[in-house]
């Protein structure tokens, strides 16, 4: 295969330019981009090398007109809360964007004008061709989004477990397993009074993590009576942790359902002259970017975000292409990242 490039540096490289330079047909170049499995390996390698050398970029707008696809994935992000640590959102967004780009899709991040108008935002994005499918997060009990999308035949995947009646394409992290690992770690250090600071009962993620604490405490023959439930903010967590530390036989360790709540526990301990990581061991959940930066550095449960992002994008791309899913309903196991906030109990 041969040929010479006949392009000028002052204009956009076209598919025809690539075909001429590679000495192949336009359809072969198109297949190299959109259906590489149709080409022989040597042909595919050659065409891709020419594409790279010429710096050819496919015309996304033209492709959208032909396929009626925008090649865009919609992702709704929650509004920021100054009383919470930055969630794992930053790393997760980067991981999803990287995985989407590898599949020749792009991520469109949006926020609804209000919680009540969120479904209207999804409808507008579909009507205006701003997204082919959606990635859902922060799945709550009785969440309306999965059923709404399913009834309209819109492809979607969820970072969070779904009811089988509304969807089977989801990836989640086993929060119960993560908290159980925290209990195992603390009991290994010698702790016997291990409290739990969680979200109000009925919260899907909160109940999962609280269940892991109760089961692990029972497995170690320990009482699971020291617990408080409150909102996922630093200030609310500080007040709830204060109640735990007011107990006559106060806990020597606290496992929090989030890193924000762990930092609230730090505040409550310091307000009464206790030093986290010395007088009180604290474990968080999420391994937010701030977890390694607070003092003492926070022991926390880390979610496998890159694996989750890769699997979610693979699932969604398969659904958009009408292909059967290779994997569905995937539950990933988190890891405990041990830092300076957990030590043997004092005395």
TrEMBL record:
Record keywords: DNA-binding, Transcription, Transcription regulation
A GO molecular-function descriptor: transcription cis-regulatory region binding
The keyword RNA-binding belongs to this UniProt entry's keyword annotation: no
Protein name (record): LacI family transcriptional regulator
Organism (species): Amycolatopsis alkalitolerans
Matching Pfam families: LacI, Peripla_BP_3
CDD domains per UniProt: HTH_LacI, PBP1_AglR_RafR-like
Source taxon at top rank: Bacteria
Gene3D superfamilies: 3.40.50.2300, lambda repressor-like DNA-binding domains
Domain HTH lacI-type: 13-67
